[in-house]
Structures are given as structure tokens and as C-alpha cells.
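Practice problem: predict the structure.
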Amino acid sequence: MIANQAERPTRALFRTVAHVLGSVLIFIGIGMATAAVVSVLHRETGAALGIGAAALATSATGLVTRRLFQLPASITVKQGFATVGLAWFVFSLFGTLPYLFTGAIPDFADAFFETASGFTTTGSSVLPNPETLPHGILFWRALTQWLGGLGVIVLGVAVLPLLGTGGMQLVRAETSGPAVDRLAPKLQGTAKRLWLVYGVLTVTEIVFLYMGDMTGFEAVVHSMATMSTGGFATKATSLASFSAYTKWVITVFMFLGGISFALHFRAFRRPVDYARSAELRLYVILVVSAVILATGGLLPRFPFGEALLEGGVTVVSIITTTGFASSDFGLWRPALQVLIVGLMFLGGMAGSTAGGIKTFRIGVLTKAAYADLRRLVHPRGVFRVTLGRQKVSDPVVESVQSFFLFYMFLFMTATFLLTFIDANLGEDLDLITSASAVASAMGNIGPGLGDVGPAYNFAFMPAPAKFLLSGLMILGRLEIFPVLVLFTRDLWKR
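Answer:
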């Protein structure tokens, strides 16, 4: 079934999507089966049967699809971006099955929202009280975030010789940042090393959390949600009911999750690589500065130790787009809420599990703007954009500026659409609620402000609003272009 050279682009694209989806659905089915085992261990027979049925349906679909559609000999850049864009919508669709089959979330719009929030590591939820869910469903929620953190397709590349030379196009589309940082000559070796670091840090956090006031199950779930910078917790109050020790441990690992995992791997061998990274220095400066501002703003209401804890947890959670909450920052003074909104647009480092615009792009945008100001004073001068000692090429600068333009345009458009939808089908949302909900979805953060703050959830929104926000979550996770390319004529024409 290998296509000839004259095969139509749409047919080759369809075969590529089908083969990749088949491979990915197998892994998702295995993840569901693991969640079913968790329910069995906790004697949740009904939940185990429902999750098991979802695992069987997903794995069978993946096996049949992979068998029927062979991968083309090569994958173009265009096909790679389109394949990843379509794939994330489809396996988010299959991820709803455990919720629907068990009745944990019987409504499809709610189930799709929860699944998209999980795989994109957003952490927004429609569930008022997660504690009432079966352990298998709680584990599945956390597992969707852990799988989506580094990327489901990247996992497929790590475990299987999934896509040969074409795998680079798909990994490039799924990985955050402007480029894939190779750690080995072969792409599969790079993927394995990234997942190794990811797994080691997750297990390490589990140990530290278990030493505190968490049960073993809670430690596993929160560690997966932390390292993926996802933020799904086992309690409606998120981290508020846990000890200061537990909050500090999670804060440290959230911070680590916002650092490039390729840099983690290199620094395990040469710790000095941390100090040499200009992007890491900027990331640290942003985090420390924001923590100081938040702590100072909380001092009139809290003693220093508590203000530092609450400010530190919240700032790191928002910058890394994890979304854990230690307190309801929606009740903080307006100046601190403005700070929170600003942090929603930052994000961690490129190559991390964090969402947002990313520290690398923030640095390039700042340096490019400064260079433009200098050109006004010295029209004949030649000014290069650098990050640390590394020169940033003009195409990369233009790409970053284009990304930021698209990001802000989509933010404004989606805020209008969300407000319009709710005004006609649901409640009239105030601007703070609408804007923060969109910023949270695009940045994969979780809670927003107003009616979607840490003390609330997204269940009250009408179905079209939930589908809009779900799409924005996927758009933000894939960094816009792999999704937008689906709507271009160049993708589908001969």
C-alpha cells in the first residue's frame, strides 16, 4: 500500500495522519489500561470495567488503523505540522471515553474539555469536587497530563522506530520552542533521553512528596501533574489543604518543569551548563522578580513566611503554567491580580513542559525592540539581536515576532468570541473572566480570574464556550502554527 510519487497530497496526508494516530492510540490505550488496574487495586469494579472498555476500544482502533495505513516513505514539513494538528484533536476525542464509559463525566462537551485540558497540561476543570471520583479516573486525569507534557508523539518516537526520518517533522511540530534540541545523532535517542529525565524527576518528586503529608496515590498523581506543569489535583482546594513542606516541594519541581529538559540532561553530566544558559538566567530573573513583587504585595495581610510561601507557589505555578493554587489569588489586591495576568503570558523555557509564549521568545522580543530603538538614533548602524553570547538569526527574530502577533490577535479575537457566546447562550461574562479564561486556555495555565478563578471551575459555561476553550488549549499547546496550517489552502491543494 505504499504510494507512488504521483500520489495526491491529501491522500498522502491522510495516510500519514492515520498511521501516526494508530501508533499514538495504542499508547493511549495502554495508559487507560493502567488506569483500569488502579481502579482494580482500589476495588472499584464499575470504574475498572468502564475504563477497561475504553482501553480496549482505543487500542483496537489504533492497531487496526496502524495496520491498514502504512507510513509514506517521507514526510514533508507541511504534512508534519498538519498531522500533529489533527492528531491532537483526535486523541483528545478518544481520551473522553474513560469519563463517558464510567459516567464520571456523562456530558460529551464536559468530557472533551476535561480531556483536552489534561493532554494540553492546562489544568482547567469542570469538576466541582475531584475527591468524589474513582481512583482510576483521578489517575487517568493525571496520566493525560503526564503523557501530554513532553508530547504523546515524542513518546511514540522514543518507544518505537515510529516514523523513521519523517519523525523529525512531527516532533518539531509537537515540541515547544523554535527548534528541537538534539541530544543524540538519531531522533529516537533524543526522545529517549528526554523521557528518561522526565521520568527520573517524576519519581524523585514522588519520593519527596510521600515523605510529607501525602498518601502514595496522592504523591503519584500530584507528581505527574507537577512535572507536566499540568495542575490537576485530587482535591477541589488544590494545594491549600497540604502542609508548607508539600507546597515547597511542588514549587521546586514546578520550577524544574519550566526548564528545558534537554538542558536538564546536559546539566546532569555538566552542571555548569545551567550557568551558561542565557535563557535560564532570564527565566530565573523573571521568577525571582515576580516572587519578590508578590511577596511584598501580600505582606500587609500575611506574615513574611506565609507571604513568601503563597507568593512563591502562585508565581511559579502561573509562570510555569502549572495552575496549582495554594490560595484564591482572585481575592488579592488589584495590583497583584494585574501581576498574575501579566505572568499568564510568559511561560517557561523552550523545550520544557510549560506553556505560554516562552522565555526565549520574551528575550528575543525585548532585544529586538531595543535594537529597533537604537536604529532610530543610528539609522546606518548594524545591530544584532543576541541572547547571551549567541546571535539570533534574522529569520528566527521574524518568526518570534510573527508568533507573538498571531498570539495576541488570537487572544483578542477569542476573548470577543467567548464573551459573545456566553452573552447569547449562557451568563454574561465580565471582561476579566473572559480575558483570563482565554489567556489561561492559550497559555495552558488552568485557573483564571473572576468566575474562573482558583475557587471556581468551568462547568457553568455553555457547550460552545467549552469547545472554543478546548480548541484554544490545543492551539496553545502546539504553539499555534500546526493548528492554523489546517485552515490554509496550500495544505490541501495539489
